[in-house]
Predict the 3D structure of the following.
Amino acid sequence: MQNQSFKDRYQARRKRALDKPVYKNMVLLLLPALLIAVLLMASLYTYGVSLLLTYFILPMFYTVDKRLRHNLTGIGKREFNYGDGYKAFFQSNKGGIFGVAISLVFALTSLLLLSGSIGMVIPHIVNNFLEAKPVFDRLLELYTDVNVNPVDLNTYILQNGYHLTRPLTIYVGLIAFIPIFITIFIFITNNLSNHYLCSIVLPDIDLNISAAQARSVARGSFGRGTYTFRLKEQFRLNWPLYVLFAMIYGMGLYGASFITTGSTYFMPLIMMIVPCSALIVAVYINYFCLMNNYVVIEENQEMILASIPAPMRTSIYQTYNSKEYIHGEESLARGGFVPAPTYFQERQTDYQAYQTSQTRAQQTSTSVPSKPSDTASAPEGVVIDLSQDAEKKGDGE
């Protein structure tokens, strides 16, 4: 019954988001997706330097993310546009919300590892293409010949390298799949999910600390208690989308393996067709994966609250209600995530019950009842007023 309740709540929340004009978000997502694919294509000719320009495209993705959150919760500006995104991104310290830098480091590391491991099967790939095998064998001979002239080697590659287009297209497609998948669907999605979680526990957190700090706080503190549960629920909702991306990638790679060219200069462009196109597809599919992640977090707030240790709940409450904390629209819509601590009231109630039981025990054990005028009333609570002491202390100081 609990799982069915989760499913119903997830479905209702997703329906709310999908009932909004999603097509506008899809249109806004097209330009940054195309630009990021162009930068990836250009990285072959710029030795990866073009990827640094990704930072200036992120505000467009941030715009779409803000609109997605509005569709789910109704909080925020409805017609959030690129101008709003760039203004918030550069003036309000939102640059770390995606965690792109660390994501690219992991992606490049996995790319290097895969290029070495999958590189060992290149001869087997080449054997499936008759036009490529003689060229490949000749290149091996030239590379292993210590007396070969480098100029002759480069000349041979420029004149005959295009025959290797089809096997190299498959090779590049294979080694690029995992880096693209983990960057888009795991690292960046988890970073955004952690930031979303932090914005629920501490509404308007972005007005107080940077986005990078916010997602780090969620990941390292109050998000840990439900991490396994959220991961399981998010995977249950997203695995069909993962399979869909893998199928599209595989079919695209199969189709691209038939493309040939008569010029070695155009060969890199053909080799990168699948990774660049897949990046655009991944961005669109990840929109719905990200929506599912937000839905899981939104609909399990009670579990998240229950998983936070009591001292941490007190700290969150004090932080949110401190006079230094800046509040905005999220605070107005959500309110405080952690309710006011009740341990003082609970202790007072326990003390009242204890005093009542002691009074009744005394009345039962006393053989001669006391006169009403001599009977002292049992205290109903303990109230300590520190204001006068504070004033006296202040006067003494």
In short: Confidence is low (pLDDT under 50) at residues 370-397. Residues 165-201 form the longest helix (37 residues).
